[in-house]
Sequence to fold (116 residues):
Amino acid sequence: MERITLYHNPACGNSRGALEILRRRNADFDIIEYLKDHPTREALGKIIDILDGPVADLVRKDKRFKELGLNPADFNDKKSVVALLLEHPELMQRPIVIRGKRAIIARPPEKLEALF
Fold:
């Protein structure tokens, strides 16, 4: 089986749930705590290129997004999403699970089952 990468936030219940599923399946995986080890421009570009779903889904439109006065309509393309997440990695949706040439946002965590 291909090695899996989990972009993880330990404070997030969905992220913890995805981690638990990977452990139960005895999957080979690496954890990247993206709030400590911020993704690079290249890593974000790769995620976007293989992401199941629209690029806009990678951005959390939460309280922090609103506090920054951001407009969701401004983040519908790769360039704008990468720029935003480089400046504000806390706005990256989580958990992101990558296996091979496919990335998913595992919300709810059971969505990652599609990678197996």
